[in-house]
Amino acid sequence: MIELRGNTLITVILLTAGFDFILLGYDQGLFGGILAGERFTEMLGHPTATMQGLVTGIYDIGCAMGAVAAFFFSENFGRKRSIILANIIVIIGAAIQTASYSYGQMVASRIIAGFGVGLSTVAVPILQAETLPSHNRGSLLVVQSALIIIGVAVASWLCFATLYAESSMQWRFPIACQIIFSLIVLILCPFIVETPRWLAKHGQVENARHVIARLLDKSDDDAEVTGQLNEILDTIATEEEDGEPTWNEVFTNATKTRNLHRVLLGMGPYMMNQWSGINSICYYLAYILQRYLGFSANMSLILASVAFTQYAVFSWPPFLYIDRIGRRKSIMISSAGCAVCMAIIAGSLGVKTTKANSACAVAFIFLYMDFFTSGILPVSWSYSAEVQPLRVRNKSTAIGVFSHWASNFVVVMVTPIGLQSIGGNYFWIWAIICAIFVPLIYFFGVETSGRTLEQVDRMFYENPRVLMGLNPDNRAVVRASKADEEERFRALGKLEKDDEKDGVQHLERVHHGDQKV
Length: 517
Hints:
Elements: H1 6-34, H2 38-44, H3 49-77, H4 79-98, H5 103-129, H6 137-161, H7 169-176, H8 178-188, H9 196-201, H10 205-216, H11 223-240, H12 259-275, H13 278-282, H14 285-291, H15 297-313, H16 318-349, H17 355-374, H18 376-380, H19 383-387, H20 393-422, H21 426-444, H22 453-462, H23 472-475, H24 482-494, H25 500-514
Helix pairs in contact: 1-5, 1-6, 1-8, 1-10, 3-4, 3-5, 3-20, 4-5, 4-7, 4-8, 5-20, 6-15, 6-16, 10-11, 11-24, 12-20, 14-15, 15-17, 16-17, 16-21
Pfam families: Sugar_tr
InterPro entries: MFS_dom (IPR020846), MFS_sugar_transport-like (IPR005828), MFS_Sugar_Transporters (IPR050360), MFS_trans_sf (IPR036259), Sugar/inositol_transpt (IPR003663), Sugar_transporter_CS (IPR005829)
GO molecular function, one term: carbohydrate:proton symporter activity
């Protein structure tokens, strides 16, 4: 097998994660498009609003089950093998969906495919957080979140292309395309690496050293490689002072790593992703345009496809600023913009439908999606893995992913019912919730931009408090360059073992004094 190194290896890791995220987005946009097709609703038996919500949202129950499975088993499998297993399960579920002939079969197969996606959405963010360089980790992760939106756009356009097919090809072909993305992931997986933190934690220290060397494109005995490995081993040693981890340790603050505190922090952006109301729009945009704004089925799918295309375009600008202004500011600005847009959408839909009101609602649906993808989306899929301690990172991230998919199910399930019951006023709920996100992030959130995962750990070791966001040091954005990162690790690698602890503290003080906020 070819042993990739440096930027080439990082690129393949990003591609593997990217196609996994395209699949995630594709699945989010898929049912919003095929629900408008007559052939699909005929196969389902012309379901009621509640049944439509169930067959759409049951996928998220499967995802939540996959996250629960990751909590119990994935730490032993490792990040790489978990991704492989997850995509095999997705292919099985997608194949059964494609061959479905009844409502019940579609529901069961949606759960199977969702299980695989839930498993992969735990493993993929951890793989990225533990392999990507800290100085531009946020920017690189923006690429992955942008690919989610590309997946949504691809699904919408493909559903539009097959809308007028005179056979079950109208919906079977778009569903079958899920298999393509998982196959690409499986083809790429042999070329990626297991993460050095997982290897070191499981006693494979020399393998961890070699993986770090490959990621940095250095020799195994290079000082930078040794410095990075030393920092990882130091963190593992600190965590092991508390003994072997137990299942319930994730839910307690009794340890130095403050696990429960960090689990809740990691859950926050995952839940904000869903409780912003994004999937009340993404899953049902064509349905809303047709049913509540008076557009034809054809025009509704065109508008939805255009909306998702511009949504994909506007998912890229965070690449330029998310490491500069930080995760906290990105998500606060994003949440405030989403709240304003949702309020205007609710106001437009809550009155008699006119051309002016419909145009206003469409415009602010577009703008809402742009605000969402400018902060909430990219932060939600990176923050949890960054803020969790290595000792229980897999389990803690699994809990965050479970909260994401459970919330997704609730949103997707209740949206048809809410729209049917209170119409456009339903969107006032999301406007209020989005506004609440801003103070929550300000008071509780810590900044992870520019910090290594081990530096994030030290924030909780040294100055633990509930309102972590009130500490200026925890709000600071570290703007370290690649050269700064290399110099820091080289210095760590040259320290004598007996003086290593004092040396790390000194370097942190020097680095902190140079950082720009």
